[in-house]
């Protein structure tokens, strides 16, 4: 599975960005797709995930009500709409795939940088 993220950039606090992740390859073995982020000097953390069919979502507490994950099955893309951005949302955002039967995310994109200025 190959993943390519896009949509990162610089935005002021309170603004919004939409990240997109295009998946290709053996996507039929996907159980869930997720977004993770890694801020400077910190460990990578889970942000949001969605089932392959798009009928189940999960968010980390700090982004609930601000971020929305969605999936376009026809295009094999997963988007992350990020509203009311805060400086603490600044990080490199990664798209990832958790295969069927696996307990972890095995495939990762290269990441896209989101910078939120105060």
User: Structural class of the secondary structure composition?
Assistant: mainly beta
Query: Which stretches of 5+ consecutive residues score pLDDT under 50?
Result: none
Global shape: globular
Q: Compute the gyration radius: what is it? A: 13 Å
| Major β-sheet profile | 7 strands, mixed
Number of helices: 0
Number of strands: 11
**What are the secondary-structure elements, in order, as H or E?**
EEEEEEEEEEE
* Beta-strand share of residues: over 45%
How widely separated are the two ends? 37 Å
Helix content: under 10%
The chain-level mean pLDDT equals 95
Quick take:
The chain has 118 residues and is mainly β. It has no helices and 11 strands.
How would you characterize the overall build of this protein?
There is one protein chain. By secondary structure, the chain is mainly beta. Helices cover 0% and strands 55% of the residues. It has strands spanning 2-6, 9-12, 17-24, 30-38, 45-51, 57-59, 67-72, 77-82, 91-99, 107-108, 112-117. The strands form two sheets. Strands 2, 4, 5, 6, 9, 10 and 11 form a seven-stranded mixed sheet that branches. It is globular, with a radius of gyration of 13 Å. It starts with a strand and ends with a strand.
């Amino acid at each position: 599975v190959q993943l390519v993220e896009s949509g990162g950039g610089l935005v002021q606090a309170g603004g919004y960005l939409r990240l997109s992740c295009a998946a290709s390859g053996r996507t039929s073995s996907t159980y869930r797709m997720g977004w993770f982020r890694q801020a400077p000097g910190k460990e990578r953390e889970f942000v949001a995930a969605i089932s392959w069919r798009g009928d189940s979502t999960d968010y980390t507490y700090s982004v609930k009500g601000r971020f929305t994950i969605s999936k376009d099955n026809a295009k094999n893309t997963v988007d992350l709409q990020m509203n009311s951005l805060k400086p603490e949302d600044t990080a490199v955002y990664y798209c990832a795939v958790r295969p069927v039967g696996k307990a972890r995310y095995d495939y990762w994109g290269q990441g896209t940088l989101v910078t939120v200025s105060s």
